[in-house]
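Input/output pair, single chain:
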Amino acid sequence: MINSISTRAASNSAPIAPNMFRVHRDLPLMRDPAIRILPWIVGLMVYLATMTLAGALLVSGLATQWSAGLTGTLTIYIAATEDQTSHALETEVENAIRLALKTPGVATARAMPPDAVAALLAPWLGADAAIAELPLPRIVDVRLAEDGEIDIADFRRRLEADIPGAGLDDHQLWRDRLVTFLRAIEAIAGVMVALIGVTTLTMVVFATRSGLAVHGDTIEILHLIGAHDEYIAGQFQSQALWLGLKGGAAGSATGIGSLLGLAFAATNLDSGLFPLFLFQPWHWPVLATVPLIAAFIVRQTARRTVLRALDRML
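Output:
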């Protein structure tokens, strides 16, 4: 057996990068309990990383979508009083539209129908509520020109002076708070992915050191017969790469399957109450790279751990 090991070690001890997968291994690494559990650890970490990264991608998309949807829009609201006639209210709405269209930088202005306002309030008041009897405000949707600039403070001042009970909302405060909140979620997701990576590295180092301790005598024999550290490290790194790919593929498949299930369940939700659970086409390739990155990290970690340990043994 020693002669067989010597022949293989000598033939692979040249300073050439070892193959990723080796058919013949001098170290029975799969007999180690710590090595056998490595695919399960990698699979779990890849699953958690996939779900966390998917959440970050969705939040980023929502932040961009909502911010773009509110940019370039203004909302004029005109409060209705109980003693005000519908004709007087309609007159104020028309005056608000004319005032908006005369303002430089405004592209369009249109009144939202009362039925549309009632539909917006239906989730909170109920579809069967007597909304027609409530003094609902009238809303005017104002769209700004793409390259136009508008003095919002002056527009608000003229609107409130000409139309009693009217107000202007530029969505700036709400948009800033929303984007800040979503960006904070993205940052937390990034920290979680980093923690998952650190945990995976720690477990790989532990498993590799366990294998070094178990096979210490065999490693000494390989050194005595002329095996280089690169050859011994290749035994560990090829095994770690294979186990990392195996566990990562299982974790990625489970994660993507979970996301598809959530996306299917979200199709039955009211989009007015819950944002659309949709992925962009480029999200899926990004998620598919998670197991590949994990396997590469596992391989490199095992390699560096072995080389450092062998340097201390000399």
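The longest helix spans residues 172-214. Strands lie at 73-78, 106-111, 138-144, 166-169.
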